[in-house]
Specification:
CATH class of the largest domain: Alpha Beta
Shape: elongated
CATH superfamily of the largest domain: Spore Coat Polysaccharide Biosynthesis Protein SpsA, Chain A
Largest sheet: 9 strands, mixed
Strand content: 25-35%
CATH architecture of the largest domain: Alpha-Beta Complex
Helix content: 10-25%
Number of strands: 27
Amino acid sequence: MKAMVLAAGVGSRLDPLTADVPKPLVPVANFPVMQHLLQLLQRHGINSVVANLHYLPEKLIEYFGDGSRLGADLQFRMENKLSGDAGGVRFCRDFLEDGTFVVLMGDLLTDIDISYVVAQHKAKGALASIALKQVDDVSHFGVAVLDEDGFIKGFQEKPAKEEALSNLASTGIYVLEPEVFDHIPREGDYGFGRQLFPKLVRENLPVLGVEVGSYWSDVGTIEQYWNSNLQVLSKKIAVDLPGYNFSVQNGYNMFVADGAVLDSNVLVQGNVMVGRGARIAPGVRLIGNVVIGDGAVVEAGCELRDTVLWSDVKVERDTKLNASVVASCGVVNAIDPPKSARGAAGAAVKTQAPLQVGACV
């Protein structure tokens, strides 16, 4: 079986983190989110993958290559003009049309049982299947309404809670038969959620909804991205973290990579990840959930609370960071920590209280 990862999006909602990094390369627990997706596919025996590219494509190609380093057979297709998510799949039709295939949005963090979704799809003879997840606030999602056999009979787009006929939202993971291409226009913008799937349902074609109970989040906003990192440290999702040694110390989860230096006088009061070659000086306090990227340096006297540092960030002496994300190349100090928006690429952007974001300076 083959799969496609939709990796062409700009990721504007993650700005400034995506000013110089394509969204699929944004690190969650020190690994690109797309790498987590490829590893998920591998766990379910799917190694042949295609991804469409558009924004900063050379960086994705440089990192992943042909996928062999990760045990995958990966191809990239450059999409010069974006044409919607279903249009992006259409763009890779020649790769996908020889059998049942899986499509995943490129900004997902999940441990969904893909094999179960595929098995349900085949057992019930579906043309298309959508993995669905119960959500608390339906007003933020399009939801699917199912019949007694699990087939979708209608959709509601972001309904008010009192008007919702379902609380099952799409996870952005689909299983499709190649015949679905017969229902996608040959050219022009075309989407799954607003166009293809409603069209198939109107035509009484078998579109299956498969409810899943696994962890699922997208990393499409700063808050969701930040929270997803912290939930990996809390082990709310099963992900592969090659090169990390895991232990529980004083009730906290510790993920320490080969080559990391964590001084014995560091105070740890939370779940912590320390990347390859990172150096944490004496007297540092790590509180809550903290991710420290590869090669990052945290100098003496610093306090990091619920914070994510990307690779090669330097946090200078006596700096305090709370609910922050600092992107690669950033240098943060006690005088000028991430604070209000300053407008330039590499500025700091203040988002919902008290989360703060800083990129390269």
